[in-house]
Amino acid sequence: MPKDDGISIRPAGPPRIALVGNPNCGKTALFNALTGARQKVANYAGVTVERKEGLFVSPGGTRVKVIDLPGTYSLRARSPDEEVTRDVVLGRRADEEVPEAIVCVVDATRLRLNLRLVLEMKKLGRPVILALNMMDEAESQGIAVDAAELSAALGMPVVPTVAIRKDGIQPLLDQIDRTLQVAKSEGLAPKSAPCGWSEPSARDLRDYHVEVETILAQAVGRPSRPHLATRRIDRVLLQPAAGLAILLMLLFLMFQAVFSWARLPMELIDGGLSAVKAAIDAGMADGPLKSLITDGIIGGVGSVVIFLPQILVLFLFIQILEDSGYMARAAFLLDKMMGGVGLHGRAFIPLLSSFACAVPGIMAARTIENRTDRIATIMIAPLMTCSARLPVYTLIIAAFIPQRQVLGGWVGLPGLVLFALYAAGILSGLLIAFILKRTVLTGAREPLLMELPAYRLPRPRNVLLGLYERARAFLVRAGTTIFALMVVIWALASFPAAPEGATLPAIDYSVAGMIGHFLEPLLAPIGFNWEIAVALVPGMAAREVAVGVLGTVYALSDSGDAMRHSLAGLLAHSWSLPTALSFLTWYVFAPQCIATLSVVRRELNSYWWPTAMFFGLTSLAYGASFATFRVATALIGE
Amino acid sequence: MRTETEMAMSAGVSLGALRKGAQAEIIALDESAAVTTLDVGELERRLIEMGLVEGARIEILHEGFPRRDPIAVLVGDSTIALRRAEANAVMVRRLKD
User: Fold this and answer.
1) Who's near A144: CB < 8 A, 6+ residues apart?
2) How many CA atoms lie within 13 A of A588 on its CB side?
3) Number of domains in chain B
4) pLDDT at residue A219 above 60?
5) In principle, which of A87, A446, A556, B97 could form an S-S bond with A92, CB 3.0–4.6 Å?
6) Mean pLDDT computed over B1-7
7) All structural domains of chain A
8) Where does the Ferrous iron transporter FeoA-like domain start and stop, copy by copy (chain B) (predicted)?
9) Would an 8 Å CB–CB cutoff place A198 in contact with chain B?
10) Which residues of chain B make contact with A76, given a CB cutoff of 8 A?
């Protein structure tokens, strides 16, 4: 290889270091401590793996880029995340320069498992610095790690750190400076060993283990003891049946909080959007532009953004559960039950998130390593009743279900119907997962094999940074693709405009109206009238939009709560009970949400799956509504 | 001191068959004893990567529900959760039940 190759491929930009480590080693906390708020999150091209990059200025005055690579136990990549880590450190990715140096982060309390990856990293022939993290916990557990001995045994600089308290960050920065200095001078005449890494065989892995044991014997004075507090907590939380009950209770509380804490901010957003709408209404002349802004943009994107408070509350809980170490326990507790329908224990977080909104739920499915498991989870996510369906459910229930006490006066009939609608979604979702996993999505059942990390108190700073990241990702989705799709749906519902002296509502003359009228005969067998058919098209923007459209179609002049109230009264007179029940059933299954379909397309990088989802769920909705309508008609008459 | 019968009895026991509280030492990994759809050699490597390797001392800390599956195993300084189906590939010598 010509010597000057080493120089020509070096970018002119700042030097970069990569953070590599096992999951739960405090790598993200270290990344936050190094870079503070100067972080940029994007996606690696072609895969839905987050690329986290930050920037800091070293004590020597060098601007250094830090890349936080996905956590892994090995460079033998098993998931898209781990492939990114492997490819970046091996310099195989075209969109990412090879880092000048690697900072290996290890949990000092679990060196036996963590050091194996360090040995693998050493094989790369690049400068490696070891950040011996969580030293405080190691000390309190009586583990005496001799950093100097460890450094000598590993042949690399070792810096003890406590990332969550920002301890040891200064020495680490100094060490990065020194390492980069050496790397820079060697960059002119590359001296570092050539890459000696190749995918380890079982034999190699055993050799690594023997080496780790030798190093531990040399550098760790007292043998480690298991984390006692964790064992005590787990004795309660991981009891077979009681542990599951505690988990379900926790989920119930979380669910309650999502709805109760988010109510006020949601009303504020709603009020704010209405105020902006009213201001534009008053200040602008009528015309297509005004309609685009108020109905298309504010109405459309607003109807998704309004769920941000719920999503934030949900994410707050998820982040705390993750940071505390409970999330792995939840997957452990649910693995057998989820496995009954062929899903991985990890599928429950995406499914849980989907009760707020399927969009973040589908995005959360990234943590599932196996692709078929991930697809199955994503495909049933829209069947978890998202909160956009609630306005529709409450409208119909208020109009048709009498306030009667059932089950000995303990439960109100409306509440029972609402519960039945949620349960119908969950049960059919599990059933579909079961069928999918046995037909099209067969293949390797991913082993569970996961570490249960020690419990830790979540740090507010890291929780907030994580929360911010998730919220940002959601808003970016709402602001780009979803925004564009909303405008398309608005255009369908607005053009062509109603002619002069039109007697029917304007939507009747639009393309959406025409589609509705065209669909009407198709929907007649399931008891839908043309008003419902027309409302379904703009309802694709977001499920609850259908409520507003029904108000428009029935030409109600009120708006907001007053409209909903009078609409309920009107529907009670103009729809039969079988029609109402059929409509509710339709909403349990129908994939009436363009945002969900677009996220599925992007996350799975395929048009096939969202198409299959649309037609599959629509047929299911049609079949279920047909059955509901016919049975109800037979039982109670038209 | 173990008698020969005890040794014989404890030989060939798999981690997948142990109950909560059992302590053992790993003596071999045998993929063919487990039900897996992974590629040949893959399960063995994953087990080693999680520290389930010959010579390691293990203790079963927790069992899942229902059917006592999966299990949480203390291996060295880490706790690893795995299903019994895969734990069957780990051959152990019982130290304490």
Assistant:
1) A220, A221, A222
2) 26
3) 1
4) yes
5) A87
6) 50
7) 5-225 (3.40.50.300), 240-438 (no CATH), 480-636 (no CATH)
8) 13-94
9) no
10) 45, 49
Q: What is the longest distance spanned by two Cα atoms in chain B? A: 41
- Per mean pLDDT, which range of A137-141, A497-501, A528-532 is the poorest? A497-501
Please give the structure tokens belonging to residue A180: 């980069």
Q: Is the CB of A448 less than 8 angstroms away from the CB of B50?
A: no
- pLDDT, position A4: 41
Q: What is the 3-state secondary structure (H, E, C) of A35-85?
A: HCCCEEEEECCCCCCEEEEEEEECCCCCEEEEEECCCCCCCCCCCHHHHHH
Mean local confidence (pLDDT), A197-220: 92
Q: Which chain A residues are closer than 8 Å to B81 by Cβ?
A: 328, 331-332, 335, 448-452
Give the tens place of pLDDT for each residue, B7-37.
544 557 999 999 999 999 999 999 888 887 7
Q: Give the chain A residue whose CA is nearest to the CA of B64.
A: A240
Q: Do B75 and B1 meet the contact criterion of CB atoms below 8 Å apart?
A: no
Residue type, A156: M
Check whether A3 has a pLDDT greater than 60.
no
**Which two three-digit tokens encode residue A151?**
């450094």
Of A201, A234, A451, the CB nearest to B62: A234
**Which of A82, A449, A456 should we substitute to test contact with B (largest number of B Cβ atoms within 10 Å)?**
A449
Cβ pairs A/B, distance under 8 A? 120
The answer to whether the annotation marks A136 as part of a ligand binding site is yes
What was the ipTM of the complex prediction?
Answer: 0.90
Nearest CB partner across the interface for B51, out of A112, A333, A336: A112
Highest mean pLDDT among A211-225, A259-273, B63-77: B63-77
Q: Sheet holding B23-29: strands in order across?
A: A450-451, B78-82, B71-75, B57-63, B23-29, B90-96, B13-14
Q: What is the CATH number of the domain that holds B25?
A: 2.30.30.90
Q: Which domain holds residue B15?
A: 4-96
How would you classify the pairing of strands A101-107 and A16-21? parallel
